[in-house]
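Risk register update: the risk of archive-format incompatibility is retired. Evidence:
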Amino acid sequence: MKELLIKNGSIFDPITGINGDIADICIKEGKIVDKVSSHAHIIDASKKIVMAGGVDIHTHISGPKVNTGRLMRPEDKLFRGTYLGNNVRQGKWMEMGSSVPSTWKTGYSYARMGYTFANEAAMPPLFAAHVHEEFKFTPIIDQTAMPVFGNNWFCFEYLKNKEIENNAAYVAWLLQSTYGFGIKCVNPGGTEAWAWGKNCVDIHDTVPFFDITPAEIITGLIETNEYLGLPHSLHLHGNNFGNPGNYEHTIKTLDLASGYRARNSFGREQVLHNTHLQFFAYKGDSWGTIASGAREVMNYVNTHQNITVDLGAVTLDETTTMTADGPFEHHLHLLNHRKWANSDVEMETGTGVVPYQYNKDTAVNGVQWAIGLEIALFAKDLMRVHITTDHPNAGPFTRYPRIIMWLMSQKARDTTLESMKQSERVVRASHIASLDRELNLYEIAMMTRAGPAKALGLSGLYGSLHKGVYGNVAIYDLDPESLPADPNQIETAFSRAVYTIKEGVIVVKDGTITAEPDRHTIWTNVSMPENKQVMRDISEKFSTGYTVNLENYKICNEHVHNPRAIEVREIKPN
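Archived output:
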């Protein structure tokens, strides 16, 4: 379909400032344009919501730990999807899985919700080939992958010696070698310490055998990121993840970004993205006294413009937790005594996988649910706060519509709260019962489209309906004039798009997959002069410490699915 005209829809596009105006959207040859010819295919979007295709800034949908989750959870394959029933094949491929869906179901499920882009937020560089192989078999959506650097031995040595230029050269080399997008940091220093049965809980703990602290790793990676001028800020999963009382440590971690400013040509204004903030916003000194620290943490975020966050909202589901924060996964295993997988990835990172049930009748899970929503409800700038579940850690991404319902409807929140057996305990330990704020559609578009795209440095390509961006559009069967609607109508509408359009191709119609056009791997190509010292270091460590040869480490172009490079040419040394 070369030309497409979407008529009479209620447009919500925060990038251009359109807030519910009735207008037309024109798409020609895959991009948004001012006008199309009289031969264009017409979609009547009267009394419907029109937004850009959704952008997921933080998810775990491809790679070795996801596949480990699939292997260890055969029971998860019994969950076949809300709308499919016993029909497990709607597109070209069979679908199965819930918290760890198959690659095919992943792409289809995102598309049904109106999403067209997802950021795989933790790629072990050594296993980048696995990630890109799964990208090939994930239909419809475009994807990025973020290599993990927070426990990388090269980075430890360069940052300990304050060699930012050398660290930048190494990061640039690794992004090119793995077709990666940006710098991800998970439990800095703590995952490496876990190889020795230890952890780094505080940002000033010392990493065993490396004489460096998490604080030095975080600030060094921020400086590296801004030296290179990458599209996205440092993407941080901090220390002390998921522990009662960690909210003060979170504020201390966020404060490490003070004094840094963004230096890039991609419209990004922030230097630090704190992932799944819900897991870092706990008061209390034990699971018996856990309480919400969301207000205190968000007071800090609201007053510091150089930070973005995503929710990591708990959805009260059966799920499969997985993270490069290996110590936390072992801790979780000791709590619930379910299956546990653990891995150490040579000189780069590690991981853990544990199934988990978020039970609405358990006080701890109820408080976690409240905290995830409070983060958004306390936010003053929702362009800097994004909807995620840290899929699948706090719940499957297919629950985003339910999170939207809770955020838009106090009635929906109250109904869920009242259904909890420990509701009185949850009320005492949180603020959720006293919050009457209800987000509007413009704010939801900020949290699911415009904000994530801008934070990723990709708002010129995704997350908007302005001229020149890719023609990715979602149309939902919800009349803005009828709001506030029955909360269930909100969830249903955002679960089952009337239309999802990917670069001008209708891929979903009335919740049904109709086409599977080309999708792309977005990566960052940094044009940095070769650093001979760093290349010597790389050659030496591969010959002495890696189980693979340097020649076998890099990903070949032909192994990457339809790569689109984001070019970084203007390096800005400190």
